[in-house]
């Protein structure tokens, strides 16, 4: 048995018991324990950790803890002046894609309204979320830290906020998404891409009043749901402006 000292920074302290927050704490470690195992044993999901320093040196999750070491654990950040920096997970390639757990339906809908790729079903099991995230390289959005500890999940985001708008702001800020928003480009129901469609091709599926008044229509490539620019669009544009404003970006 060895003993190492741990110090967690910023929001990572929210995962610790009160007596361990904002301070250096010594913990016994089983011989040959990985630093990832110890961090999660203390309650912090690995997806929330961006940097680990052992006696001032950057290490990865596989590092084996030794007696007397000082381990500093940092959350996600935009930049930090440390070299060399050992990355804890591969960089994601391309556009961020998400999967929201079964309790985050409103967050999924809001992100889709802004044009982001978010899978969601209200009957997803934790196992399904983990499998899909691993297979598709998606970021798991959840308030369940036990879900994020699953070893197959590489990318994740624990939502500290309970309020839906605050959760949205967390995601937009953490992944720097606001400037890449493409509002009204995805289906709110199934996450499919919307495409412009001729009125004559869908008017038989539109209520009579809307058929007579409006001319611009869109169809989901996934579920074939038809959308049109009715009076509700003014309210939705205002909603988009509010959502992007919460992340410090005005609607464009």
UniProtKB/TrEMBL annotation:
It comes from the Bacteria. Residues 1-81 form the Ubiquitin Mut7-C domain. Residues 97-239 form the Mut7-C RNAse domain. This is Twitching motility protein PilT. It comes from Noviherbaspirillum saxi.
């Amino acid at each position: 048995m060895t003993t190492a000292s741990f110090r967690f920074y910023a929001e990572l302290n929210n995962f610790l018991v009160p007596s361990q927050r904002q301070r250096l704490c010594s913990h016994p470690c089983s011989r040959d324990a990985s630093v990832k195992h110890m961090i999660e044993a203390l309650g912090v999901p690995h997806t929330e950790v961006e940097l680990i320093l052992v006696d001032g040196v950057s290490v990865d999750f596989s590092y084996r803890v030794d007696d007397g070491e000082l381990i500093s654990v940092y959350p996600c950040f935009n930049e930090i002046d440390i070299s060399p920096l050992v990355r804890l997970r591969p960089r994601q390639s391309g556009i961020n894609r998400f999967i929201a757990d079964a309790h985050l339906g409103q967050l999924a809908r809001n992100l889709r309204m802004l044009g982001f790729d978010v899978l969601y079903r209200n009957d997803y099991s934790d196992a399904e979320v983990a499998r899909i995230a691993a297979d598709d390289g998606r970021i798991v959005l959840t308030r369940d830290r036990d879900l994020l500890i699953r070893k197959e999940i590489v990318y994740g985001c624990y939502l500290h906020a309970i309020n839906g708008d605050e959760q949205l702001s967390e995601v937009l800020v953490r992944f720097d998404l606001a400037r890449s928003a493409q509002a009204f480009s995805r289906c709110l129901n199934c996450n499919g891409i919307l495409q412009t469609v001729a009125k004559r091709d869908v008017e038989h599926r539109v209520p009579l009043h809307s058929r007579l008044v409006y001319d611009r229509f869109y169809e989901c490539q996934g579920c074939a749901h038809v959308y049109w620019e009715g009076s509700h669009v003014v309210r939705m544009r205002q909603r988009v402006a509010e959502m992007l404003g919460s992340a410090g970006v005005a609607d464009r």
